[in-house]
């Protein structure tokens, strides 16, 4: 099942006006500078924010059609959403967080916890584990719902470089197994190149296909300028 | 020492607190999470008993709970007995008089909950009632407990309102605060002192608990 999205929503400084489509079993990276409207786009797809005008079709279901007044609430869209700052439920253990979703099945939860290497922590509360472990739990929580679509909003940006690399690898491996469309937001070009099957650059609320070339060109230009200066350590070499 | 009055006071406070918790929770939710246009008006109206003299609140309650009043007629129609000067009457009065004390801490506790947790729960497929019981309630227990204790204490201490709508029927509406007042009026200082002394440690202890509950954890 694929997803097709066309939305328009006025934001404080510009209008978000995009049209994207994501095929099944593929990871689509939405890339662009901070404040370009990427998160708003995800929130509209999830049903957390409303669009002024728009149409979202998932397979043969219509999730949003402002013209016909159709709006399917987030509860019924059955999608997974991994937030940037992993908001886990503070009163529940890691296990109960992972098993939180409506209809989460226990064997599935166990498998996921083991797969993401946090099964030994399942009795702990979120504030007693590290950021990386919390984010692993957040991914388990989203997947235990058996989502039909996975939205990831800069899921690894708050993590240290090694944890980020591990989780990125894991995500890439899972892509085929899950067989669902995934939309991944980032502003990191390296991350995008590593993960993406398809890339959609969004700048100031619009799809801008040339943005990648321009920004890569700018990086090259900047590098030749600084050829004699001490080069900044490039963490991206770690990937 | 008038034990019946003390017991009656505690019974009244327990009943009013229990009813108020269930009554206020949806209201607090509404005020905390909705964007109603008339929210400020609704809130100011609910908080009126906080600002007005208890005798004024009592007077209005006397009117609406009387045989010709809207609440009085409703009650008489449902049960066949009058509402004024009965235990049920002072329970209703205590509830209306104490609503602000239940609403404010509960609302503050609900507002403190990270909105992303609620969004996360929605995406994970929870219906609004399930979100309330599985996310909002467990994360605002301290605020709810504080609200319950404040209502309990406030009801225990209510005097003017109780006198207006309850009078002083022994075993029915003569609560501790009224019994103390009457003891002083009839120069039974010993009895008044004993009852006052019984109330003092209860109130002090509960206030300590409220302080502990509402203190921020960080």
End-to-end CA span of chain A:
31 Å
Structural shape of chain B: globular
* Main beta sheet of chain A: 6 strands, mixed
Which regions of chain B are unreliable across 5 or more consecutive residues at pLDDT < 50? none
Q: How many alpha or pi helices of chain B?
A: 12
The portion of residues forming beta strands of chain B comes to under 5%
Mean pLDDT level of chain B? 91
Descriptive account of the structure:
The complex is a heterodimer of chains A (239) and B (218). Chain A is built from eight helices and eleven strands. Chain A has helices at residues 38-46, 74-77, 94-98, 106-115, 131-144, 161-178, 189-195, 211-225, and strands at residues 3-10, 15-22, 27-31, 53-58, 61-65, 70-71, 80-82, 150-153, 182-186, 198-203, 206-207. In chain A, the strands form two sheets. Chain A has a six-stranded mixed beta sheet, sandwiched between helices. In chain A, strands 2-1-4-5-6 form a five-stranded antiparallel beta sheet, covered by helices on one side. In chain A, strand 4 (53-58) and strand 5 form a beta hairpin. In chain A, helix 4 (106-115) packs antiparallel against helix 5. The two termini of chain A are 31 Å apart. Chain B is mainly alpha-helical. Chain B contains twelve helices and no strands. The longest helix of chain B is centred in the N-terminal third of the chain and has 31 residues, at 3-33. Chain B is globular and about 65 Å long. Chain B starts with a helix and ends with a helix. The mean pLDDT of chain B is 91. The A-B interface holds A 46-48, 73-81, 83, 85, 87, 89-91, 100-103, 141-142, 145 and B 114, 116-117, 119-127, 130, 134-135, 138-139.
